[in-house]
Design brief:
1025 residues, 19% helix, Leucine-rich repeat, LRR (right-handed beta-alpha superhelix)
């Protein structure tokens, strides 16, 4: 018995030992299998850009290799995670030997070839991530053997064929994605058996047929995406009963039918709903607002009709896109009422209602949306009304489309506040007014379309400040004026410039040559003149050039034949002449049009132009000796010219040391910011004068080297803009030492987006003649003696002003009347040389004397010619009268006249200077604009009699050659009514050296008045012969 027991114990020990040794041998064998499979995987990797597989060697256990995770008990590989490592190669079949593998993650690498079917051996596999690689071939049906799979993602590869129907057996599968492959065929109905499925994405393939009815049984489905396939038929009704659905996207297929009316009720958890690009009919379900979690609603490009329901409850809505349907009635007032219901959507980013049949008035509530709005598209409807200015609050707006409607009114300047705006489309409306100058503040603007409207005015030069602009179309408007060089030279414009069918004039600026990458230039249908600029030759990438219907002249530039990308050239109906090139685009008669240029010749025979005549030389060939003589003479002349230029340069350089005007060239292009900084923000400390239309500030430019006077126009004052234009027109071509020199003009926008216009002059350090004749108390320092002008200085100033008027009236073209001559407009430089300024009321003199004044009295009361009060024509004699008053002015009278608070009281004070002379008082009353019939002392004022008297008292003292309209000035005559200078006084020393070459005669003409007082009325008359 004891032997038997011993034998049984021995047998049990041996069995246990065998079992232990067998298990150990199995574990060692399994570990070696995993190691060998990993090394085989490494051997198939052809590119390890990051070197992560360098650790896969015998120096450490394979469980410590990068990306490898093993089970703690058996040391078997359970996870292989090599995502996002830029690996390239193939996946070997040995991967199927990792029998304990639960997760394989190779996403976002560059693996190629087929997915090995041996993956089906991985019975423990739960997660398979192979997306974003380059796998090809078919999906292995053996994957269905991995019965524990939870996630299968094969998206973004090159897989072909069908989805294996065997996938329907993966009962635990929760997520399946084959997005962005080349799969075809019908979607297997067996996928409807995946009762655990929560996400199904089969988008961007070639599936066809209908959506399987079995999908209605996917009760746990949350996300369904079938976008961009060839699916047809209708959506199985049971799908709309899966209340767990949050994402429903079947866009870009051929699905038809109608949306259920209770869609928003049966899918209460809906967050994303998209059926865009199908063939749905019917209306938008009125129950949609019940899906209160809705964030994206996209039903564009279908055949939907009817009214859009109100959407107040959709407070989480971010995208509302109903583009390209037949929604709306085309004119009913409540068509757009749903837009106001979206004001509750605090996260609204995109609102697309374009390409529909909406009509009615554009509601102002579109300016009440959340400032999160980025895209607003209402184009291609029948909407009318004005664009609300409140739209300027959308600081995040990137695109605004309102084109092809019936909008009217002006373009709101508030649009310039949209600093992130990249695309602005307002074309095809009835917008009027001007293009806002403040559009230059749109630094992010890429495309601007304002064509097909009723816009007027000029093209703002500020558009040249749009740094990101690539495309602009202003065609088919009523724009006029020149094309701004700053705009046409914006080098960022690389796609299209459309300025056709406007009323633009002038020449094409040479700055167009800056458009090196421009593809299309269309300036047709305008009134542009001059030659086609040579600088167009810099636009080497032009594909279309249309310049027809203008007044261009000269020859067709030869460089056009060298434009290798030019496909369409239209130069028709201009005044071009000369030979038509025969190379490049000119070799293709169908690619060019040159009709209506009657002086062209040559070119292809298809053009049927006359041959170009060859001019033969009438001179015999020059001999060698003659050629040698010409060369020697030309060399000597060239040497002489070079020495002359060198001498002049040295002289100018020496003078430039003390000449502040040398830095003026840098002032030719000044912006609002330059002037703002130069005048310390237009501070009151820099204010040196004020007038009816503007204020004058002292400015410091060029890092303190240049001191200027900046005249800023108050554009809100009536007539200020006309004053600016008048000064610009008057100062454009006039140059004289006794006129204030204008350095540049600034026309732009200020920091608030308002129009800004200013003129920059040389600063006159000694102020105006008014300051010297009547200095204000605040202008005189306590310890400083009052400034006075001696006789010599006064005479020089008088002659300076006379020379300025002589130039204006006779020597400049066109001849100009200043119309506002007074002491405050006579400015004095450092040497007390007088310079006439302020041409805000200047007028060009008419060629005939039939033009009368229709804008009232021109000038300042006290200096104005009295005949202007009755509408007489503008003439040089008006300036002559003002000049006489300036010379003979009395301080008491003029001080009273300049204060206009109470005309009658001031008149009474001023009239004391005339004693009992009633005629003189009548003349004075006219200056004060007293009403007809006003009682002034012993007589009653009548303006007609007063003008007649004052005019006769002036004209009666003019010499006959003045009254007959002299054509050339030879003398400067000073007329005066009292002997302040002896008749025989020698003035050669007093006048100064700069008049030594002129013949100056001062005549003293004494009027023989009936009494002393009446003589005062006619004193101060000056004539320039």
């Amino acid at each position: 018995m004891s032997w038997l027991i011993f034998s049984l114990q021995a047998l049990a020990f041996c069995f246990s030992l065998h079992e232990f040794l067998g298990a150990s041998a199995f574990s060692v064998s399994g570990n070696e299998t995993d190691r060998a499979a990993l090394l085989e995987f490494k051997s198939k990797v052809t590119n390890d850009a990051l070197g992560v597989l360098g650790s896969w060697n015998d120096s450490i256990h394979f469980c410590e290799w990068y990306g490898v995770t093993c089970s703690p008990r058996h040391q078997r590989v359970t996870i292989l995670d090599l995502q996002n490592l830029k690996l390239a190669g193939t996946l070997p079949p040995h991967i199927g030997n990792l029998s304990f593998l639960q997760k394989l993650d190779l996403r976002n690498n560059s693996f190629t070839n087929e997915i090995p079917p041996q993956i089906g051996h991985l019975r423990r596999l739960q997660i398979l991530y192979l997306q974003i690689n380059s796998f090809d071939g078919e999906i292995p049906a053996s994957i269905s053997n991995c019965s524990n799979l939870l996630v299968v993602s094969l998206a973004l590869n090159h897989l072909v064929g069908k989805i294996p129907s065997e996938f329907g057996s993966l009962s635990k599968l929760q997520f399946l994605s084959t997005t962005a492959n080349n799969l075809t065929g019908n979607i297997p109905s067996s996928l409807g058996n995946l009762s655990s499925l929560r996400g199904l994405s089969l988008s961007r393939n070639g599936f066809y047929g209908s959506i399987p009815d079995t999908f209605g049984g996917l009760k746990n489905l949350v996300n369904l995406s079938l976008v961009v396939n060839n699916l047809s038929g209708t959506i199985p009704p049971l799908i709309f009963n899966i209340s767990s659905i949050q994402t429903f996207d079947v866009g870009s297929n051929y699905i038809e039918g109608e949306m259920p009316l209770d869609l928003g009720t049966t899918l209460p958890n809906l967050r994303i709903f998209s059926i865009t690009g199908n063939q749905f009919t019917g209306s938008i379900p009125p129950s949609i607002p019940n899906a209160t979690n809705l964030e994206l609603f996209q039903v564009s490009e279908n055949n939907l009709t009817g009214k859009v329901p109100h959407l107040e409850r959709l407070q989480r809505l971010s995208w509302f896109i109903i583009v390209t349907n037949n929604l709306g009635s085309g004119g009913r007032d409540d068509d757009l009422s749903f837009l106001c219901s979206l004001t509750n959507a605090t996260n609204l980013e995109r609102l697309y209602v374009n390409n529909n049949n909406f009509g009615g008035l554009l509601p102002g509530c579109i300016s009440n949306y959340s400032t999160t709005l980025q895209y607003l598209l209402v184009d291609n409807n029948k909407i009318f009304g004005r664009i609300p200015s409140g739209i300027g609050k959308y600081v995040n707006l990137q695109r605004l489309d309102m084109w092809n409607n019936q909008l009217s009114g002006t373009i709101p300047t508030a649009i310039a506040k949209l600093q992130n705006l990249g695309l602005l489309y307002l074309h095809g409306n009835k917008l009027s007014g001007i293009i806002p100058h403040s559009f230059g503040n749109l630094k992010m603007l890429i495309q601007l379309y304002l064509s097909d409207n009723l816009l007027q005015g000029s093209i703002p030069s500020s558009l040249g400040q749009c740094e990101s602009l690539t495309t602009i179309n202003l065609s088919y408007n009523n724009l006029s004026g020149n094309i701004p060089a700053q705009f046409i030279g914006r080098s960022s414009i690389s796609v299209f410039i459309g300025l056709s069918n406007n009323q633009l004039t002038g020449s094409l600026p040479t700055e167009v040559g800056n458009l090196k990458n421009l593809e299309i230039l269309d300036v047709s249908g305008n009134m542009l003149v001059g030659e086609i600029p040579r600088s167009v030759g810099g636009c080497i990438r032009l594909e279309i050039l249309d310049m027809h219907g203008n007044l261009f002249q000269g020859e067709i530039p030869r460089f056009l034949a060298g434009f290798e990308f030019l496909q369409d050239l239209n130069l028709s109906y201009n005044n071009l002449e000369g030979m038509v090139p025969t190379k490049g685009v000119f070799k293709n008669a169908s690619a060019i049009s040159i009709l209506g240029n009657n002086k062209l010749c040559g070119g292809l025979p298809k053009f049927q132009l006359p041959n170009c005549g060859v001019k033969k030389s009438k001179h015999r060939r020059l001999t060698v000796a003659m050629k040698l003589v010409i060369v020697i003479v030309s060399g000597l002349v060239g040497l002489a010219l070079a020495l002359s230029f060198l001498f002049l340069y040295l002289v100018k350089k020496r003078k430039a040391k003390n000449n502040p005007s040398n830095s003026m060239n840098s002032l030719l292009n000044l912006s609002y910011q330059n002037l703002y900084n130069a005048t310390s923000g237009f501070s009151s400390a820099n204010l040196i004068g004020e007038g009816g239309f503007g204020s004058v500030y002292k400015g410091i430019l060029d890092e303190g080297k240049t001191i200027v006077a900046v005249k800023v126009f108050h554009l809100l004052h009536h007539g200020a803009f006309k004053s600016f234009i008048a000064e610009c027109n008057a100062l454009r071509n006039i140059r004289h030492r006794n006129l204030v020199k204008v350095l540049t003009a600034c026309s732009g926008v200020d920091y608030q987006g308002n129009d800004f216009k200013a003129l920059v002059y040389e600063l006159m350090p000694n102020g105006s003649l008014e300051d010297w004749l009547h200095p204000m108390t605040k202008d005189v320092e306590a310890d400083e003696a009052p400034r006075n002008l001696n006789l010599h200085q006064r005479l020089n100033i008088a002659i300076d002003v006379a020379c300025a008027l002589k130039y204006l009236h006779y020597d400049c073209q066109p001849q100009t009347a200043h119309c506002d001559l007074k002491p405050s407009n006579v400015l004095l430089d450092a040497d007390l040389t007088a310079h006439l300024g302020d041409f805000g009321l200047a007028r060009f003199l008419p060629s005939t004397h039939k033009q009368t004044s229709t804008i009232g009295i021109k000038g300042s009361i006290g200096y104005i010619a009295p005949e202007y009060g009755l509408g007489s024509e503008v003439s040089a004699y008006g300036d002559v009268y003002s000049y006489g008053i300036l010379l003979k002015r009395k301080e008491q009278i003029m001080s009273a006249i300049s204060k206009r608070s109470n005309n009658k009281i001031q008149f009474m004070k001023a009239s004391d200077n005339f004693g009992a002379d009633s005629k003189a008082k009548e003349s004075l009353a006219l200056m004060f604009k007293l009403p007809d019939g006003t009682e002034i002392g012993p007589f009653t004022y009548s303006p007609v009699d007063s003008v007649a008297h004052l005019k006769s008292s002036v004209v009666s003292n003019w010499p006959k050659d003045i009254a007959n309209g002299p054509k050339k000035a030879k003398y400067v005559d000073l007329f005066k009514g009292e002997n302040i200078l002896p008749d025989d006084m020698d003035l050669s020393d007093m006048v100064g050296a700069h008049y030594s070459e002129e013949i100056i005669t001062i005549k003293v003409v004494l009027r023989s008045p009936s009494n002393k007082n009446s003589a005062k009325a006619s004193r101060g008359v000056c004539a320039i012969l």
